[in-house]
Design brief:
Number of strands: 12
CATH superfamily of the largest domain: Gcn5-related N-acetyltransferase (GNAT)
CATH topology of the largest domain: Aminopeptidase
Largest sheet: 12 strands, mixed
Helix content: 25-40%
Strand order of the largest sheet: 1-2-3-4-5-12-6-11-10-9-8-7
Distance between the termini: 37 Å
Length: 295
């Protein structure tokens, strides 16, 4: 077997030329790389921060075996790796350790990379969050459905979206991956947020969806203000955006949950979401402050 050969670039087009088919070959597992690179392609290289994103591919016998990306100062995002591949990636990145503030990957890959990174750099790793990736099976609307209706947010809702995006990121314990106004503008442009409205027209919850790419969309974020929780709003709006995504032709509808939140995990399973695999997010002590907010 030929040795692993990692390629690093700051050129998104070059990365997608190399890795695009590989990422699309397993779109559910690669949902974050697919959606983040699409945002960078359409919104520009500073969509997630001032520093330029970096990308990498592992190639063996002329084929891409794995990929990574990072939008500094946010964590490194990895596709699935063996322990040996994780070690070779740690060696490849060791000279850039200042930028490696954390890692997000499926649980086995994250564990392997953390071990390799600690061995090579002496960094301290802290488990930040365990996540579960779900895909929608048979949609079931939670009963009883609360009073009100679903409505796609438009330009007039921008202040509400900006406010709730800030509250959402604070609730999940992170920092915004994007400036709130930029996030709101991008979502409004393609109808990417739906409100659940009370009968008087007051928004009481929201659910977003990423743009459809590789025949899949991901539901993110889902947010209900604290004083309005427990009334069925989140379930109703999540079911609605899931239905709308299916009706719009998405072959796969996905979402991530925090495994530390049993309420949301039970809710999404009631709607019809079924587990795909688990992910883990680690922080490294010698990096910049990471962020893990749904993108």
């Amino acid at each position: 077997m030929r040795p692993d050969h990692w390629h690093r670039t700051e050129d998104l087009g070059r990365f997608l030329d190399r890795a695009g088919n590989f990422l699309r070959s397993r779109p559910a597992l690669h949902t974050v790389p697919l959606t983040v690179t699409e945002t960078l392609r359409t919104r520009g290289p500073h969509a997630y921060g001032d520093l330029p994103p970096v990308y990498g591919t592992l190639e063996r016998d002329g084929a891409v075996r794995a990929a990574y990306f990072q939008t500094p100062p946010h964590p490194l995002n990895l596709t699935a790796l063996t322990a040996g591949e994780a070690d070779s990636l740690a060696a490849h990145l060791e000279g850039h350790r200042r930028l490696v503030s954390g890692v997000v990957a499926d649980s086995a890959t994250a564990t392997a990379f953390v071990a390799a990174w600690q061995a090579r750099t002496g960094a301290t790793a802290t488990l930040h969050q365990r996540q579960r990736l779900y895909r929608l099976g048979t949609l079931s609307v939670p009963q009883p459905v609360p009073e009100g209706r679903a409505r796609v947010a438009d330009e007039s809702d921008r202040p509400q979206l900006v406010k709730w995006y800030g509250e959402f990121t604070e609730t999940v314990g992170g920092h915004p991956t994007r400036e709130a106004g930029s996030w709101a503008d991008a979502r409004i442009a393609y109808g990417g947020v739906t409100f659940w409205e009370a009968p008087d027209g007051t928004p009481v919850a929201m659910a977003g969806v990423t743009p459809q790419i590789a025949d899949q969309v991901r539901v993110a974020p889902v947010y209900t203000p604290a004083h309005l929780r427990g009334r069925g709003y989140a379930g109703a709006v999540t079911a609605e955006v899931s239905r709308a995504a299916r009706d719009a032709g998405a072959g796969e509808v996905l979402l991530f949950t925090d495994l530390a939140n049993p309420t949301s995990n039970r809710l999404y399973q009631r709607i019809g979401y079924r587990p795909v695999t688990d992910f883990a997010v680690y922080d490294f002590s010698d990096g910049s402050s990471p962020d893990h907010t749904a993108r």
